[in-house]
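Blinded run. Sample ID left blank on purpose so nobody reads anything into the name before looking at the predicted structure. Input follows.
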Amino acid sequence: MKLREHISIAKRAVKMVFGQSKTFALCTILNSFLAAITPYVPIWFSAKLIDALFAEAPVETLILYVTLTVGIVFLLQLLKTYVSHQKNISSSVMYRMEDWQYAEKAMRMSYESIESRDVQLLRNRIRMETQTGYNRFYLHMCMEYAVRYITEIFCSLALTVSFFMNRTIPLYMKLGLLALLVLTVVCNIMLTAKQKKEEGFFYEQNVMRNTVGEKYSQYIGDYSAGMDIRLYQMAEDIVESQSALNREYTEKSLGLHKKLTALTVPQIFLSHALQYMTYLVLIVGAIAGSVSVGSIAKYVSCIMMLLTSLAKLVAMFQISIVNHGYLKRYFSYFDIPNNMYQGSLTVEKRDDNEYYVEFRDVSFKYPGSDVWALRHVNLKFKVGEKLAVVGMNGSGKTTFIKLLCRLYDPAEGEILLNGVNIKKYNYDEYMSVFSVVFQDYRLFAFTLGQNVAASTDYDEERVKHCLHQAGFKERLETLPNGTETYLFKNYDKNGVEFSGGETQKIALARALYKDAPFIILDEPTAALDPVSEYEVYSNFNRISGEKTAIYISHRLASCRFCDKIAVFDHGEIIQRGSHDELVADKNGKYYELWHAQAQYYTE
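Blinded prediction complete.
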């Protein structure tokens, strides 16, 4: 990474901290400044006090020095306590905001990015790196300690400058001490850089190992996985796999710390050599009478604090440089663009309900795939019609719906609403005209009413009406808290675990509650038996009224009532027409599928 990029990342990082919470940023700086200058108050006054004692100064002078020492330190500590308290409060709020940023980013992303495996791995990686301290935590830590160490360096230099100005101490001693100080700092820089490089290599090696370990932990901690683990006797294999990961990590960690220890020894040796030489030089000055007893304590303390602060500042700088790589990856996630074209046209409101949707020579393949999921699809249907989309698994049915709902845009061709490319419509407004129940729909650990309304606020009577329409009336009457009943037990120990069929009815009620012009059912009843599925579709066909309804199912009997049926095969529409028309074509795919399924229900 070049210097210009490091500077750019550092600027953006600091700007981000101040942008999220100026209170936290300012309190961090002030808290570090106060922590840095506080130790120098007793050092300076102690030197004054010792010299006053040797000079047999009046008691009043001694009391004044003691009073100033204790009083100033007391005030600084009092102010630091207040600032630290404000920092902790703002820090708690800021870290919650940081965590919420992931959710906000996910909601602003295109669906293509949400489904991308690379994006998912990137998100998991930066969150794991955050947990280990990199990117956000080290950013705050480096900012905090950089202020502290720079302040300490200035304070130490200010209190030791008189030592180097002392003419009675031989020049060669000063230069020797200065040379040893520079040597110690340079060695600390080089050795610390080597340590950070070793640590960075270690953490880079363990990215995938940590990711796999985290997945194991999540799986084990998921109560829904408990049944599989016990029924299939998976516990021993899972424990062994997790143990193997831990053993590998421990072995590599031990090797790392051996290297770090070896690199620390020279730093310790040089630090004590510098301290030893400082004492020798000061003793020479004291014998010559140019250095007072109090000054000896002051100079030794300040020189050692100067060395420590320089070493720590260098370490912080190197950590910051390493952390820039993690911040770059962190920012790359939040910089993922939403490339979905955002149109501006308003979806037309027509009194005559004359809406037409047309797929015009549409082809599509998923990002990173060379296989066409849809190929040259042409289909036109009128709003208000009932369309069934059938075909074998993997024939392109769900992809067709994803394109219609603009979760993806076609690679070739275009989709039109009343002759206008749907990309030109306002994206949010266009999305609002669809109520979809996908085959992998999700219910949340909120109340029943919130699940149906997909909102924290809802109309209770309307929720009940939609649940009744979806066939959930009898079950609703058995719930003691009605629509305020929580699903699952994540937040409420009295939460209810509904059956698969019941959750499907709740999902259907959600689609009804939205009251959108288009209602789409993408095999949400696949877990039901064919008779129950047919009943659900038939009932939903009745309550959908004049809305456009699109039904996807691989069970053909469920779609007999539809106006049109489109038969998909290998991403193409190979047949279209009514049920009677398609079943009469003995050479067609629909006829083949229909009779293949019918044999299981006839003798």
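Unblinding after everyone has recorded impressions. The mean pLDDT is 85.
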